[in-house]
Amino acid sequence: MTAPGDVTLLVVQVSDSFSDFWAALARELGVPLVARAPAEPGPPPAQAGVVLVAAGGHESEVAALLPQLAVPRDVPVIVVGSAASHRLAAHIVAAGAADYFALPDDRDGLRDALAAAVQGRRASLGRAALAQLEAQAHAFRDIVGESPALKAVLERAARVVPHGDATILITGETGTGKELLARALHYGGPRAAAPFVELNCAAIPAALLESELFGHERGAFTDAKTAKPGLFEVAQGGTMFLDEVDHLAPELQGKLLRALDQKSVRRLGATATRTIDVRIVAATNTDLPAAVHASRFREDLFYRLNVITLELPPLRQRGDDVILLAEFFLRKFSAQYKLPPPNLTPEVRGALLAHAWPGNIRELRNAIERAVLLSAPGTIAVAELARRPSPPAGAGPLPFPAPLAEIQRAAARAMLDTAKGNRSEAARRLGISRSRLQRLLEGQAADDEEGDPN
Q1: Is the torsion defined by CA of 433, 437, 439, 443 positive or negative?
Q2: CA–CA separation, 221 and 219 (whole Å)
Q3: What is the spatial distance between Cα 285 and Cα 246, in angstroms, rounded to a whole number?
């Protein structure tokens, strides 16, 4: 963040005329002097309060030069020459300069104009700094809770908010609010004006994920009728949120690591790379060190993502936050459905605190919405709040006591249900091969497969 005292006077030296005057002028204004040649690439530094183009004897070149300087619109450009001509001054101002002064006659006018520009820039940077501080102060206002467990995480996160380049890994059970925290880190920080781009790594097949991340050129594959920028390019200057990052395929883990290390990406089918300036916030609900140990996640990528870790506590560890969240959702859904807002009775509070909420905030939110809609207007029925979907036939805890083959078969079926019928994913989560999973589903105990290393 730029402080008001960091404002500088930038002199673009088209000519050496009056060069001894610029240092004395900067001292009078109380600002540092920075000099550069016209051909020096890139925009002026962010601290520049005013750009002075020293063009004595080369005034005719200024109109063509001004667009090449890439000066932001809120930074005034003042051109100084030696020719006193109203027509020349009008031409230079029409080309984009804020004013034109001819030395030595306009020395006092130049000094006053520069002083006003520096003062205005200081005020502008001061307002921007204040706005940034306010954004940081309110970054977490949408995260409801007062428990020590939550406050400890938010205090840790608040120290990272001003640092827009720090890579962050958010961990925690499903439904604890990882995306909400990622958004708070982005919109409270210096990258807030740039895009926040979210990608759920588990929601897109691995075959399509590379194109989503890195983009592709026309003709890169059969259906690539047009070129498409990847999400890294879309997020340029902002934040990329990689949710469920543990689901990245091994080959994509390596490509992501290269992109982060080299700060560049290459579209599928392209030969040139593109430089990226993106802050990475990743999230997972699994034990990544365990995944590394089991060779399901690259160790080098884990260390690259695990610069700052923020672990969100489950709702069962947050005490009375359950009540605060319930009240928040009651207000939200009562207003949304135009129903009278109910009060939490002691019975309802007791039911809320007694439940373990394995689905965390997401489960609580859905329960409150259901209860608001199905209870009598202005009330919350405990029966509706606590209603759970009936388990499918045959579901329930693993059979015990029972033969080993039956227990293993039940575990395999339960994991297959959790993976929504995806046998490869179920096998991965169990840490076994797909063929062994098939044998377990058929009722063959693992001990029967002595030759199978998986």
Answers
A1: positive
A2: 5
A3: 8
Q: Identify the CA nearest to 145 among candidates 290, 327, 8.
A: 327
Q: What is the mean pLDDT of residues 47-67?
A: 84
**CB-CB contact of 292 with 246 (8 Å):** no
pLDDT digits (tens, 9 = 90+) for 184-243: 999 888 888 889 999 999 888 877 888 889 988 887 777 777 888 889 999 999 999 999
**Token output for 168:** 């962050």
Residue 452 has pLDDT above 60, yes or no: no
Residues linked to residue 197 through DSSP beta bridges, in sequence order: 240
Task: Determine contact, residues 165/280, Cβ cutoff 8 Å.
Answer: no
Q: Work out the end-to-end distance of the chain between its first and last CA atoms, rounded to an integer number of angstroms.
A: 53
CA–CA distance, 422 with 77 (Å, rounded to integer) = 63
- Three-state SS for 13? strand
Q: What is the pLDDT of residue 388?
A: 57
* 367-402: pLDDT as tens digits: 999 999 999 999 999 888 866 554 444 445 566 556
Closest by Cα among 207, 165, 173, 366 to 283: 173
**433 backbone φψ class: left, alpha, beta (φ>0; ψ -120 to 50):** beta
Cβ atoms of 156 and 310 within 8 Å: the answer is yes
Structural domains in the chain, sorted by start: 4-133 (3.40.50.2300), 148-311 (3.40.50.300), 316-385 (1.10.8.60), 404-448 (1.10.10)
Instruction: Supply the pLDDT for residue 1.
Output: 37
Rounded-to-integer distance, Cα 409 and Cα 423, Å: 14
Instruction: Assess whether the previous peptide bond of 104 is cis (omega < 30° from 0).
Output: yes
**HSE-CB of 277 using CA atoms within 13 angstroms:** 5
